[in-house]
Design brief:
The protein contains two helices and seven strands. By secondary structure, the chain is α+β, with helices and mostly antiparallel strands. The longest helix has 14 residues. This is Secreted protein.
Length: 105
């Protein structure tokens, strides 16, 4: 009897919506919302999900530390990153102007 309940609970759990799971199918409403914000709705990240890549207001501005930018202060160019999210290993300046590397997938 106990195993039957466990199996039933597992089957029902599979039917529940999964919040935070990769958006592998294109969502027309999400695309519309993204493009209305000036973004680009496309596949991204290692898990290849649809994401809204939004432009940042200070893209390309010069920077010396993290708080100078809405996104990352890129250490190689000392310019603010252009879009969010940004994937890959990103060398950037922290708040004390030291180079840090963060890898985002």
């Amino acid at each position: 009897m106990r195993s039957v309940l466990v199996i039933c609970a597992t089957v029902l759990a599979v039917c529940l919506p999964r919040v935070g799971v990769a958006q592998t199918a294109e969502d027309p409403l999400a695309r519309e919302d993204c493009e209305a914000k000036g973004g680009s709705y496309e596949m991204g990240g290692r898990i290849r999900q649809f994401i809204c890549f939004e432009p940042l207001p200070d893209a390309g501005n010069s920077c010396e530390k993290a708080s100078d930018c809405a996104g990352f202060c890129l250490s190689d160019t000392k310019q603010c990153s252009a879009v969010t999210p940004k994937f890959g290993c990103i060398p950037h300046l922290d708040e004390t102007a030291r180079v840090q590397v963060i890898c985002i997938d």
